[in-house]
Amino acid sequence: MNIILASTSPYRRRLLKRLHLPFQCVAPKTDETPWAGEAPAALAMRLAQAKAESVAMLHTDALVIGSDQVASVDGHIMGKPENFDTASAQLRSSSGQEVVFHTAIALLAPNRAQERLHVERFCVRFRTLSNSQIANYLHREQPYDCAGSFKVEGLGIALFERLIGDDPTSLEGLPLIQLTELLGEFGVDIL
Is the full-model pTM beyond 0.90? Predict the structure, then answer.
């Protein structure tokens, strides 16, 4: 079965490679602007589904995986920072707080015969961080393309007191435990 990851994210690509499946990546065409008043989990699901659908329209013979991640503090959405100043502000607002990540998966069967949707919730409790710790971290890792301004698979793990959730791969952008289950429902046995 032809499998397409509707993403250009190197993080999602690296995660999906862990399942040892042949797949290709195709860039989705999706407006990622949140709607007014849209909840973080709803935004993640809408974007994952929109990404999968935009690719599935052009590749009707493929099983398409769409995914999106939204981070929030006290219900306020944090996007990808894109630069030092925004990342620094995000980490200051996360310092000593619990940040909630909603990572959504949309799986579309060939010819859109079936669809499965899932949102994985994962919480991160941040240590209380000084301005110099935040600056040192950002200069060393430069996570400007990551929701929440950190890379859990790297030095970002030092920012946390506690991780709370069922699937740590969801923090990297693709919840592999749930994806494996959903792929099984589509006849793709990982093992």
Answer: yes
Which DSSP state fits 109? -
Q: Could you give all domains of the chain from N- to C-terminal order, each with its CATH number?
A: 3-185 (3.90.950.10)
How far, in Å, CA of 152 to CA of 134, rounded? Answer: 15
DSSP for 27-65 reads: ------PPPTT--HHHHHHHHHHHHHHHHHTT-TTSEEE
pLDDT tens for residues 43-87? 999 999 999 999 999 999 999 999 999 999 998 999 899 999 999
Spell 78-90 as b/e; 16+ CB within 10 A means b: bebbeeeeebbeb
Amino acid type, 23: F
What amino acid positions are annotated as catalytic residues? 68
